[in-house]
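Deliverable D5.2: sample structural annotation.
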Amino acid sequence: MRNRKQTRLSRFARLAMPVIKAWPYLLAGALVTVAAVLLKDLEMQFETVMPITQVRVDGEFEHLDANELKARVLAGVDGGYFTVDLNRTRDRLMQNPWVKTVSVRRRWPAELLVTVTEKQAVAYWNEQALISAEGDVFRPVYIDKTLSLPHMIGPQGQHKKAWLFMNEIYQPLTAMALQVDTLKLDDRRAWQLSLINENFANKSENEPLIIRLGRYNTEARFKRFVEVFSRENSPDLKQIKTIDMRYPNGFAVLKKTQPGENSLMKIINTSVFVAQTDMDTGV
């Protein structure tokens, strides 16, 4: 009888042993479940008890509107003070083409502080987009065509090259009182500049000066243009219509004609000055 009872107890002990060993894990799982439920409940309470009610937007804006940015932030807030997704808020604002950078942080007890940096447009690109100060193309919904910006024209994907060249020529031209109206890179990869002379007293008579630089040795040709026309005894740029720098050691000049003059005869007979007659191969 005693042996039979001991056998039953031994069998029960063997069956209970796995349960005894597993109980810490079962307890831990139960605690995790309870904690998750409590956290979810706490999160819901924070959203109702501590909602985000204020947004402050800081930054210097020319094309962005602080009130519109503020409204966009408030419309997208998806939590309370502790649960609001700051990265999501940032991403919503970054969707605006004029936004360069965004930082978002909390301020107790119910405010978001948003700092926005606006992109600086430095040029038009193919009349359909803008180029930023970093050389990137961006496309606002509305492009103001009245901005005092140069126009850059070129094949798709060549905006960075045009931007870099613009940076190279900007300072030398400014020193000559010249501004870039249009910088063009055509499909053959030939460069042409259209410049505005700031020395004109009557701006309405300021016809753009065309500089042809061609495909090859562009930097050297531009440097030669600057060296020649920066001299005191250089030809008067206000009297020149076109300068062709596609010559190995010189340039060709097409002067402007006066009212009543035959422009065709003037160009053929007297208006074109060629410093060197043989053109560069391939122009």
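Annotation notes: The helical segments are 2-49, 66-76, 86-94, 159-175, 218-229, 263-271. The longest helix spans residues 2-49.
The annotation will be released with the project's public dataset once the embargo ends.
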